[in-house]
Specification:
The chain is an all-alpha fold and 209 residues long. 63% of the residues lie in helices and 0% in strands. The chain has one domain (3-200): Glycolipid transfer protein, GLTP (Orthogonal Bundle). It has 10 helices and no strands. The chain is globular, with a radius of gyration of 17 Å. The chain binds ligand 03F. This is Glycolipid transfer protein.
């Protein structure tokens, strides 16, 4: 069974409000995926994503009835920490988490669209580079861009990456990409809704790390 289809994101309601608990459940499956990628550089990325999920969950669990949607959390933090907001708490964690989620979205979409280096059709470097340029690069100074270069060269072959998405089963590339396309429906809608929320609340920052 495909990892992606087991962990599909939920349909959004018409107002695009994201249920915090369902969101946390959906993203909680992402970090363990990095264990199958087989290079230590991925453990840095894993712990960054994991840390951000934990920060959001920590706030949510303080008062689940108050923080039903992600927007409830971001707005409550704006009230409580007006001086530092949005560079604070779960607002900051979600700001960065969404960039990682966007990276994954662009990477999977590029693979699903069949974009490839004709000379190296089993490499995913063009797809990974596209995702990095669209989602993360502008927030990274040169040191972190160097880490990206290490990760890029440790990227798995496409066949191994797709196999990992299929939980180690040998699945035909076309079948796996069909699953990716299905997964991307609600996933992309959710990531877009988080970006829209940050724009509408004026919560986005563009400092580099
Ligand atoms: C800022 C920053 N976080 C952190 O400093 C950087 C960490 C290292 C980033 C290295 C970049 C690597 C790019 C990926 C290359 C991957 C090659 C993939 C091959 C497959 C923030 O950190 C903190 O997060 C925040 O809490 C803190 O408070 O200023 C703040 C303070 O700093 C980032 O730049 C976020 C990095 C997210 C990277 C996501 C990469 C995802 C990679 C692969 C995805 C594989 C697909 C999985 C599909 C699974 C579906 C189920």
């Amino acid at each position: 069974m495909s990892l992606l289809l087991e962990n599909r994101f939920r349909d959004l309601p018409p107002d695009k409000a994201i249920d915090t608990n369902l969101f946390l459940e959906s993203v909680s499956h992402i970090p363990s995926f990095f264990d199958c990628l087989g290079s230590n550089v991925f453990s840095i990325i894993k712990s960054d994503i994991n840390g951000n999920i934990q920060k959001i969950r920590g706030v949510y669990l303080k008062d689940p009835a108050k923080y039903v949607t992600l927007q409830d959390i971001v707005e409550a933090e704006r009230e409580a920490h007006s001086a530092e907001w949005p560079k604070v708490g779960a607002t900051l964690a979600l700001m960065w988490l969404k960039r990682g989620l966007r990276f994954i979205q662009v990477l999977l979409q590029s693979l699903a669209d069949g974009e490839m280096d004709e000379n190296n059709p089993n490499h995913i470097r063009v797809n990974v580079t596209k995702a990095y340029e669209q989602a993360l690069k502008k927030y990274h100074g040169w040191v972190v861009q160097k880490i990206f270069n290490v990760a890029l060269h440790a990227a798995p072959y496409k066949s191994n990456f797709l196999k990992a998405l299929s939980k180690g089963e040998e699945v035909k590339e076309e079948d796996c990409l069909a699953n990716v396309r299905q997964f991307l429906g609600n996933y992309t809608a959710t990531v877009d809704a988080i970006y829209d929320m940050y724009t509408n609340l004026n919560a986005e920052l563009d400092y580099t790390v």
